Amino acid sequence: MARLTDEERLALLANNPPTVVVDWDGTCVPSEWPGRPMKWLPGAPEAIRAFLDAGLDVRIHSTRLHKYEGDYTTLNQSREDDYRYIRRMLDHAGLYDVDVIFDDSKPGAIAYVDDKAIRFTGDNWPEIQAQILTPKHDEERKLFEGVGGVTDFIRTNIARPGDIKPTNPKDAVGSSKLPIHLWPETATIMGTMGLLEGMLKYGRSNWREAGVRASIYVDALRRHIGAWFEGEDNAPDSGLPHLAHALACLAILVDAEAAGQLYDDRQYAGGGYRDLVEECTPHVERLKKKYADKTPKHWTIKDTEAA
Q1: pLDDT of residue 76
Q2: Mean of pLDDT values over 151-158
Q3: Would the pTM count as exceeding 0.70?
Q4: Three-class HEC string of 2-32
C-alpha cells in the first residue's frame, strides 16, 4: 500500500478531524453520581471550546448508565435522562458541536481526559501498580486495613461478572420496585417552587409539626387550578405559576397524611357521589349522539390570544 502524500494526509484530517474524548463526572462536573450537578468544574467549558476552535472533534464519553441497577425500562429512562442532562449543560455553555456517547466501547482519539486516568509513559508500570494498589486517603486506608489489604477489599466488595444482575427486557414486567422515574422532573421543579415560597414564609416542613386541615388545602388547590384553567398563568401575590402552588398543595396533603398530621375534615360521607357519577355518565354519550350533526366553534384560550 502506497504511503499518503502530505496533501492527502491534510485532506484526510480535514474530513476526519482528530478527536479528544472527555470524561464527564469528576472531569467536567463534580463527581456526585447519581446526582446531576448543574455546575462546571473551573476551566472545563473553556478548554472544550478551545479544542473546538482549534479544529478538534470533542466527544463526551460517560459510563453513567452502567452504574444503574434496575430493569430494562428503568435503564432506558436513565439513559434518556442522563443524555438530556449532559446535552443541556453543553448547550447552555454554547458547546453545541460536542457529541455525547454512552457505551462500553473506547472511541478512537488523540487524547483522553479523565479524572481516573493514569498516563503510561512506556516504562512506568511499577509506578502504575503502586498508584492503583495504594490507598489514596485515610478512609480508603481504614477500609483496606479492615479486610487485609486492597486486593482482599476488591475481592470482597467488587461484584464478579456472575454477580451482575441481567437487564433482560422481561425484567420490566417482573420488577417490584417503585418506578420513581415515571414522575416527571418538570413537575418536581414546579412543586419545589411552590414549597420554597411556603418555606420562606412559614418554615420548612412546618405542616409536619403544626398539622394541616384538609379542606384548607383543597380550597387552595381548587383556586389555583381554577385560575390556571381560566387562563391566568401566575398567581398575582407570589408571581409563581398557579400549577406550582397546586402541586405544593397536593404534596403537603400527601405528606401530612403520611405523617399523621392531616386533620381530616372532608365532606360527610353521604354515599351518593359515586352513584351520581355513574348515573350521569351515560348522558354524555347520549348528548353527543343527539347533537352529532352540529359543528359549533369551541372557544379556547387560543382564541383569546388571537383577539
Answers
A1: 57
A2: 51
A3: no
A4: CCCCHHHHHHHHHHCCCEEEECCECCCECCC
User: Please, what are the domains in the chain?
Assistant: 13-113 (3.40.50.1000), 133-163 (no CATH), 185-263 (no CATH)
Across residues 253-267, what is the average pLDDT?
92
What average pLDDT does this structure show over 239-261?
A: 95
For 119-129, the pLDDT digits (tens) are 888 888 888 88
Say what the pLDDT of residue 303 is: 83
